[in-house]
Amino acid sequence: MGKRGENIVIVLKAGFEYGVGKMSAEVCVQNNGIAPSHNEGILLNPMMGGHSDWERKYGHLANLRAKAFLDRNGKAAYGWSVEYADPGTVLLADAEIMVKTLRRTDRVMGHLAKEFGTPDSFGQFVAHFAASLGCTRFAVRHATPQPDGTYYKWLDTNGMLRWVASAETGETA
Question: pLDDT class for 34, splitting at 50, 70, 90?
């Protein structure tokens, strides 16, 4: 087993739908040989209660995200939260896993806030969220293939902070 979080990637999204601006940092898993039936390097969405080894390992991350709302006037994102988005049917065993994951994430993010200060922006909140999962890689989906053959622009934490700041002002979204 590799380092904690080595296959975890946070996918950043921002936009307006029905007049409501939203930004999210959604957890995915990159296939670095963990799912032989899928193409190498693609981003996978784990399923809770999945039957494959990788889904059992990463299933607690299914639909987990950090979310914020956007103001049309280019002001900072607001209403930050960590949540499970659209979980569908939730069995008791799944709910228990979700609660355990949310509590652990909240606890680790609390420790990070004590050590580094309370986040002042959604980007900093996402950095704490990612760190709580052991994640250091971020991606933004593009409509056209990128030089590496994927549809993602890959970012480190500093790149993510810049992307979120520009999305808040409407430059990226």
Answer: confident
Q: Say what the alpha-carbon torsion angle 34, 62, 167, 107 is, to the nearest 10 degrees.
A: -100
CB 64 within 8 A of CB 27: yes
Nearest alpha-carbon partner for 27 in 105, 116, 143: 105
The whole-number pLDDT of residue 2 equals 44
Is position 15 within any domain?
yes
Instruction: Please give the pLDDT value at position 46.
Output: 83
Place 169 in a pLDDT band, splitting at 50, 70 and 90. confident
SS3 content of the chain, % helix, strand, coil (to 5): 35, 25, 40
- The SS3 of residue 33 is coil
* pLDDT given for residue 172 in this prediction: 61
Whether residue 59 lies inside any domain: the answer is yes
Q: Does 142 map to a domain?
A: yes
CA 113 to chain centre: 19
What does the block give as tokens for 89?
């049917």
- Residue 66, domain extent: 8-168
Cβ pair 8, 137 in contact under 8 A: yes
Read off the pLDDT of each residue in 106-113 and give the average, rounded to a whole number.
97
